[in-house]
Design a protein that fits this description.
- Pfam families: Metallophos.
- The protein is of the alpha/beta class.
- The chain has helices spanning about 15, 50-60, 75-80, 85-100, 155-160, 160-185, 195-200, 205-220, 270-290, and strands spanning about 35-40, 60-70, 105-110, 125, 130, 135, 145, 225-230, 235-240, 245-250, 255-260, 265-270.
- A hairpin with a 5-residue loop joins strand 11 and strand 12 (about 265-270).
- Helix 2 runs parallel beside helix 4 (about 85-100).
- The radius of gyration is 19 Å and the shape is globular.
- The termini are far apart.
- The strands form two sheets. Strands 4-5-3-2-1-11-12 form a seven-stranded mixed β-sheet. Strands 6-7-8-10-9 form a five-stranded mixed β-sheet, covered by helices on one side.
């Protein structure tokens, strides 16, 4: 059993958490996008790498009947080393619990970084249902296994020290990524992920990701269901592997992506940095024209 990580809020008061006022007020946006289901994971609240403002923007623009939180929402590994919890991270918790209060079904499937919540599987906190895994049925009748995926990562399961070493190296890359994007903002350039680019270029990383996807898809085939939805590897993906539908919702550290199901069962990956850039483009053009 994992040791308990002390959180900067009282989990016993989850039911009242929505009554607090967020630091960034929830925006009232007409014509919010409506989806049947939304999947997000690997937010890593409690770390500087978390793109909290971008996720807040997503949550203020998108609604759904069901939302799955597919693990590593809170980074217990990082919080055991140092406490980092800005107001924007509270704002994300507030928005999730507010959705539950409004009637959205929230299903939380803890991952390896927030494994301290796995001991509460089968319970509800503030309207959030905690499960180890789930089966989701799409609007068109497909059954999809939903899990974080760390149970199929040999490094995480068998060589925990190596996983922590890799996590430290990853934190270093994300620090560089934050500095790089702060410079890009000075030149009005959109968000760009250094680590995502590196993963696409490094042969071993690509091989690991491909093997992970195949193993997870094999598990779905073994259970006799149509497909699987995972997180863990921070790479959004939709593809068919040996007749099994494989989906990964990505993350909110590097790629800032979510997986969504439309009301006809169609699945789509939303790249939110691109969505913001497209939304801001007409405003930038209007400002230039006015100038």
């Amino acid at each position: 059993m994992a040791t308990i990580t002390r959180l900067p809020f009282d989990t016993a008061q989850f039911s009242d958490f929505h009554a607090l006022q967020p630091a960034i007020p929830e925006r009232t946006i007409g014509g919010r996008r409506q989806y049947r289901t939304v999947w997000i994971s690997d937010v890593h609240l409690g770390t500087r790498g978390c793109n909290a403002e971008m996720l807040i923007d997503f949550l203020d623009h998108v609604d759904s009947e069901t939302m799955y939180l597919v693990g590593d929402m809170i980074d217990g590994w990082a919080m055991k080393k140092r406490l980092y919890w800005p107001a924007t991270h509270n704002d994300i918790v507030w928005r999730v619990l507010k959705r539950a209060k409004r009637g959205t079904r929230i299903v939380y499937i803890p991952g390896n970084h927030d494994e301290m919540f796995r001991q509460f599987s089968g319970l509800h906190f503030g309207g959030v249902e905690i499960l180890r895994q789930a089966i989701h049925e799409t609007a068109d009748g497909r059954r999809l296994l939903v899990l974080h995926g760390d149970e199929f990562d040999a490094i995480t399961m068998s060589h925990r020290w190596l996983a922590h070493l890799g996590d430290a190296a990853y934190e270093g890359m994300m620090a560089l990524n934050r500095w790089l994007n702060s410079v890009r903002r000075l030149f009005n350039l959109p968000y760009w992920s250094l680590s995502k680019y590196a993963k696409q270029k490094v042969k071993n990383a690509v091989s690991f990701i491909s093997k992970f996807e195949e193993i997870v898809a094999h598990e779905a085939a073994h259970r006799g269901i149509h497909g699987v939805i995972a997180g863990h590897i921070h790479k959004a993906e939709m593809r068919t592997i040996q007749g099994v539908e494989y989906y990964n919702d990505g993350d909110w550290v590097e790629g800032c992506t979510a997986l969504v199901e439309h009301y006809d069962g169609t699945m789509e990956i939303l790249h939110w940095a691109d969505e913001i850039a497209a939304r801001d483009a007409p405003e930038s053009g209007a400002r230039l024209e006015a100038a």
